[in-house]
Specification:
5 helices, flat, mainly alpha
Length: 131
């Protein structure tokens, strides 16, 4: 039952993050849809982790080059997701209020993705691998 509660909580926080992103685009004073490009980063961010878990062995060694590369690539994707709205706001493509909403949405969404991997990535009896 704890897995279902975690899934409901993660879906609620994901909805809150996407609401921030939608508000940054749809409010009348902002009115541009350039911030939606961060959705690409939301999709790309877990992919290096998925590949590293599939390719690397499951040994409990202290360090694994494939896993470290996946952490590095994921960090680059996350930093890019935070950097894109700042660059767009600096170049006056979007307003700074929309940038703030996108950054708030990024924080919530990436914490949701992290929470998903912490809750369902342990390999116990209730795991995302079953789906």
């Amino acid at each position: 039952m704890a897995g279902i509660k975690a899934l409901v909580g993660l879906s609620f926080s994901g909805a809150i993050g996407l609401t921030f992103l939608l508000l940054s685009c749809a409010l009348d004073q902002y009115g541009v849809y350039w911030p939606f490009f961060v959705l690409i980063f939301y999709v790309l961010s877990p992919i290096p982790h998925f590949i590293a878990r599939r390719v690397s062995d499951d040994g409990d060694s202290g360090s694994n080059a494939c896993r470290e590369l996946a952490y590095f690539l994921t960090s680059g994707i996350v930093v890019s997701a935070f950097g894109l709205p700042i660059v767009l706001a600096h170049k006056d493509v979007i307003q700074w209020g929309a940038c703030g909403l996108v950054l708030a949405g990024n924080t919530v969404i990436f914490l949701t993705i992290l929470g998903f991997f912490l809750v369902f990535g342990t390999g116990d009896d209730f795991s995302w691998e079953q789906w």
